[in-house]
Amino acid sequence: MPRSPRTRSRRARRARAARIEALAAGREVAVPCRARRTTPRGWGAWVDGTLRLPGDHDGGEAAFLVDDPSDVALVTRQGEAPVALEPPLEVEVRPVRYKAESFYGGDAGILVVTTARRTLEVALHGDEVEPVARRLADRG
């Protein structure tokens, strides 16, 4: 029997609240999102995946993991998986500009994460943009 949309949205809200709590507490968290690689010559396609953030006291790097392994080449030229977001990081938040970017609604945001090797745009739910931006900036 299929679940009602109300149940799924309630479950999604609870999961999002738990992720926001983990972000605020500095624990390891995996945030579902979409990402694309940008270059001076343009940008790639949006790819579904998960942004993995290690805990504040854990070692390791933040990384983007693609849901479909065949899409790795769309977000990194080197073809490595997961796509590491190694320090130093420069993190900017920008608003959704186009309808094609509004995966999580018009009030959502896009993180522009720049490292020495790549620039990645990450589309997140509006509630998760600022906490994720703070965590990434603290790691950089």
UniProtKB/TrEMBL annotation:
It comes from Iamia majanohamensis. This is Uncharacterized protein.
